[in-house]
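User: Here's a chain of 199 residues. Predict its fold as C-alpha cells.
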Amino acid sequence: MSLLSDVNEVRGQVTANAGGGGSYLNPSSINEGDTTRITLLGDKSLAGYEVWGTNSEGKRTSMKFRTQPAREDLQDRANEMNVTLKGDEKAKGFYAFFVYNYDAEKVQAFQFSQASLIDPIIASLSDEEIGAEPHAYDFKLSATGTGMDKRYAANCVPGKRRQPAIDKKINSAWDEVVEAGADLSNLLVGADVFKSVIP
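Assistant: Prediction complete.
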C-alpha cells in the first residue's frame, strides 16, 4: 500500500481548501531559525478536514472529519461534543503521518494543514523515485517569522535511514508503536493515535 493512498483520496478537495514535544509534532512548535528533521514511517497516511469551535470551558476544540463536512454535519458534531460554533467556520484540510523526529529521537504523529508544508511534501511523495522508496528520504522542516506572519518550509533530502544502524534504531521504535496499536484514524474521533481503540 502506498503512503499516499489515503492522502490522494481527498487531495483535490483539500488542496482547494488549503490556504515538537510529546507524541505529536505540531508545526507551531518549530521556531524561526530552527530545523526539525523527520522521516516518514509505515505505509499509512490520513487526510481529512478540521474545524475549530469552543467547548463549555471556553477552550478551543478541534472537530475532524474524513470528508468535507456540510454545515449540518458541523452542527451535528458540535452538538454531540458540546461545542459552540460562531457560524462562519470553514473546514480546513489536513494531512497526518507517523514520523520519526530525529531531534526528539522518538516516533510522533505529524498533523499539518499549512499549504507551505502540504505542497512540497505531497509533491516529493508523488515523485516516482521518492514515492518508490519514501523511507529512504527525510524532510527538513523550518519556519520563518512569528505569529500570523509565520511561514513554513519542507525540503526533501537523502535520508539518514540509509545508514543501517540508524534504520535499525528507527525500525525498533516504530515496531513498539505498531505493537501498541497505533492508528492515525483515531484523530478523527479525538482518540490517542498511539493506542488501540476498541469499538
